[in-house]
Automatic annotation (TrEMBL):
InterPro entries referenced in this protein's UniProt entry, alphabetically: Adaptor_comp_med_subunit, AP2_Mu_C_sf, AP2_Mu_N, Clathrin_mu, Longin-like_dom_sf, MHD
Official protein name in the record: Clathrin associated protein complex medium subunit
Biological process annotations from GO: intracellular protein transport; vesicle-mediated transport
GO CC entries: clathrin adaptor complex; endomembrane system
The UniProt record lists the keyword Oxidoreductase: no
Organism: Friedmanniomyces endolithicus
Annotated Pfam families: Adap_comp_sub (PF00928)
Listed PANTHER family: AP COMPLEX SUBUNIT MU
Ranges where the MHD domain occurs: 170-279
Subcellular location, principal: membrane
Keyword DNA-binding tagged: no
Alphabetized UniProt keyword annotations: Membrane, Protein transport, Transport
Domain of life: Eukaryota
Compartment(s) where it occurs, according to its Swiss-Prot or TrEMBL record: Endomembrane system
Gene that specifies this protein: APM4_1
Length: 279
């Protein structure tokens, strides 16, 4: 997928270059500097030159660039770049030129951990903070072995998005159902299109690893696109259509996007959203 990651400041100075494949040459950094940073006419976040594609976003005063060869999933590349910026902010408080220069060793560690041969692996902040820390500490051999065991279980387990031994004095969960209603009516009063765009968002303060469930309407039917999973997506992305079906009393869901914590088998079988929520 990604051949390398580049970080530039606004002047075009190269801050970080991490190559994951042999086709990532240092001269590609000069190509991006000349073709994008030095060229004010370039406004597109994607630039393809020959077989090389540069996908970039801007965070404060730095450019975050993903370099790829061939035909790759651009949406996945941009989602990873934004996630990388989010990781940087969670570690350093901000993700700008000063933060990158002051923590360039940590940036390289994060890149080596979240990408394997250019493929995104683990981008969960809580999991990464277990073994990539900003503070050094001298530990006993027994403590080091215990921490190593916890890290291994967390990184390779089925619940990479939630760490173990989470405790709260009071168990709470807040669920928000957000809906936008869209209606298109002709001059004669005929409904041309009616749909609802929405999402189900949850903030959980729960002890341990509890399993939560949402029950959906019994008259629910899935649209043609069915359900899809996405990295870091909302728990639900609900879209209705077809005024005729709504009039008949059925509820249609289309373009559904589920968070990775949702058990897809339960959703497919009985339309139940069953999941262990992130902390």
């Amino acid at each position: 997928m990604l051949s390398g990651i580049l970080l530039f400041n606004q002047k075009g100075e190269l801050l970080i270059l991490r190559a994951f494949r042999q086709d990532m040459r240092p001269r590609l950094a000069d190509v991006f500097r000349i073709q994008v940073i030095s060229n004010a006419q370039i406004r597109s976040p994607i630039l393809t030159l020959g077989s090389t594609t540069f996908s970039h976003i801007k965070s404060d005063n730095i450019y975050v660039v993903g370099v790829s060869k061939g035909n790759v999933n651009s949406a996945l590349v941009f989602e990873f770049l934004y996630k990388l910026v989010s990781l940087g902010k969670s570690y350093f408080g901000r993700f700008d030129e000063e933060a990158v220069k002051s923590n360039f060793v940590m940036v390289y560690e994060l890149l080596d951990e979240v990408l394997d041969f250019g493929y995104p692996q683990n981008t969960e902040t809580e999991t990464l903070k277990m073994y990539i820390t900003t503070e050094g500490a001298v530990k006993s051999e027994q403590r080091a072995l215990e921490d190593s065991s916890k890290i291994t279980m967390q990184a390779t387990g089925a619940l990479s998005w939630r760490r173990d031994n989470i405790k709260y004095r009071k168990n709470e969960a807040f669920v928000d159902v957000i809906e936008d209603v869209n209606l298109l009516v002709s001059a004669t009063g005929t409904v041309l299109r009616a749909d609802v765009n929405g999402s189900i968002e949850m903030r959980a303060y729960l002890t341990g690893t509890p399993e939560c469930k949402f029950g959906l309407n019994d008259r629910l039917t899935l649209g043609e696109n069915g359900a899809d999973t996405s990295l870091g997506g909302a728990i639900g992305n609900i879209g209705g259509n077809k005024a005729s079906k709504a009039a008949a009393g059925s509820v249609t869901l289309e373009d559904v996007s589920l968070h990775q914590c949702v058990k897809l088998s339960n959703f497919t079988n009985d339309r139940t959203i069953s999941f262990i929520p992130p902390d």
